[in-house]
Automatic annotation (TrEMBL):
Protein name in the entry: Cytidylate kinase
Family: Belongs to the cytidylate kinase family. Type 1 subfamily.
InterPro entries on file: Cytidylate_kin (IPR003136), Cytidylate_kinase_dom (IPR011994), P-loop_NTPase (IPR027417)
Species of origin: Methylomarinum roseum
GO biological processes: pyrimidine nucleotide metabolic process
Length: 218
């Protein structure tokens, strides 16, 4: 398939979403926020009151989940007819997503849903395993990171700006715990693809990161 894909993988708070959206807009390409698929499943599982160790039922919820993405200025996500956008960014959602994302059976159900986003004229795909598992043949691959302290500060600021109560120490602990879980899981762990370009954004502005990524593609 000759449809170009740019993958941007990395840990929580590195700037993947911000950079991916800006780059997709500049290039006129589609955008896949794969984390929002795992986050939506987390909400579906929490809504259904399923025990997070009950893999079989989580897989059934994933199979039956109907998701619609509406791309305006902000991404709107409709889960089984309900607008869940306001719940997507919560830390509980991200942490639950990271727990259920560790199950290979869950990842297998969500794989094709993600591949289907590859459409002309191109795709920017953001996540943990975009360059390693979902789009291993992608033409352009980035691994975007930043120190855990810097990522926690960014996440804290982002939550406060959204009017969501947050505690910096708790967020730092959550980020470290999520990093560990995402890196150590057996299936599709967070890892840099061998052919990816590594960018550490700790001391870079958002614009500097966007320029670097655009230069890679052009
Ligand atoms: N280079 C940067 N410098 C400062 N803040 C940044 C930078 N990149 C991203 N941010 C901010 O950090 C927060 C998290 O970014 P986001 O794109 O959601 O990260 P990710 O998708 O990797 O979790 C956002 O509020 C964003 O504006
Ligand atoms: N491609 C992906 C994307 C997300 N995820 C999981 O989903 C969680 C939430 O992803 P996200 O990209 O929305 O999280 P943030 O980086 O925005 O904090 C991650 O911690 C991962 O465990 C994944 O396993 N694979």
């Amino acid at each position: 398939m000759n449809i170009p894909v740019l993958t941007i993988d990395g840990p929580s708070g590195a700037g993947k979403g911000t950079v991916s959206r800006a780059v997709a807009k500049k290039l006129g390409w589609h955008y896949l926020d794969s984390g929002s698929i795992y986050r939506s499943l987390a909400i579906a599982v929490l809504n259904a009151g399923v025990d997070l160790h009950n893999i079989e039922t989580i897989v059934e919820v994933a199979q039956g989940m109907r998701l619609d993405f509406e791309c305006g200025d902000e991404l709107t996500v409709i889960l089984n007819g309900d607008d869940i956008t306001s719940r997507l960014g919560a830390e509980t959602t991200g942490n639950t997503a990271s727990m259920i994302a560790a199950y290979p059976e869950v990842r297998a159900v969500l794989l094709q849903k993600q591949k289907d986003f590859q459409r002309l004229p191109g795709l920017v795909a953001d996540g943990r395993d975009m360059g390693t598992v979902v789009f291993p043949d992608a033409k352009y691959k980035i691994y975007l990171s930043a120190s855990a302290t810097e990522r926690a500060k960014r996440r804290y600021k982002q939550l406060i700006e959204k009017g969501i109560g947050a505690n910096l120490d708790q967020i730092t602990r959550d980020i470290e715990e999520r990093d560990r879980r995402d890196r150590e899981r057996d299936t599709a762990p967070l890892a840099m693809a061998e052919d990816a370009l590594y960018i550490d954004s700790s001391d870079m502005t958002i614009e500097q990161v966007i320029d670097k990524v655009i230069n890679l593609v052009r």
